[in-house]
Amino acid sequence: MCAQTTTLINGQAVASVDARDRGLQYGDGVFETIAVYRGTPLLWERHLARLARGAERLSIRVPSEDLLRAEASALCAEGVRSVLKIIVTRGAGGRGYAAHGVGEATRILSLAPWPDYPQEFARDGVSLCVCDTVLGRNPALAGIKHLNRLEQVLARAEWRTEYADGVMCDGAGNVVEGTMSNIFLVVDGVLRTPEIAACGVEGVMRAVVLDAAKQLNIRVQVDRVTIDELRNAEEIFLTNSLIGVWPVRQLQDNDYVIGPVTRTIQQGIREAHCFDRF
User: Fold this and answer.
1) Which residue is catalytic, options 71, 145, 179, 262?
2) Are 121 and 262 in contact (CB under 8 A)?
């Protein structure tokens, strides 16, 4: 395989899919975005487990882990830090929503350069806005990382570069997540994060943080969070698999300190990401 190969589609070094693919036609598939450090996809088992859960929810047959690992290893061999994306679609089929007669699933693995997020985001914190775009409630899709991301696309169009991310709520005004992150807040010393029951993505780093908090004897609650509770929180931070933890220093007109719970969690999960490693 050529060292410059950055995309594999069903194991072949090509850059286009069948126009009939249901991932393109209907968003019929799931994906994972994985931090790669010195050739190793981080949190691989957790990402593959979520990929499998999402595919099972959609009744899509996932390629074997051995096959995905072999192709990922071939792509990720070079470089210090990069981003691996794995997409699995139902495959190519005929016209219409019905999936009868669709063949094998399509697997797409691609490698991208590490994003140019400023290092001071993890040290000094970031600013957030509250998005006007809301998330539709659909328990059948809640938690999984499916290919339908138009709500996030619309929300991200609400600002240019003045914010690092935007808070997304459901139609009832409950906080769910950021456009690209999960949200944590500290209230009366308790670490809280919105439940992902009707919409939103159960992030891999979110799960890492929840596990770390228990090991660090930090009290945790996963429950409904209102926008007023978020605004009045003592601490807020964001998580995803690339950024690890970003403290929040401002939510529009509200200012926050970067408190002890945030810093403790940052240290507790440091080996799970490579945002600040070179």
Assistant:
1) 145
2) no
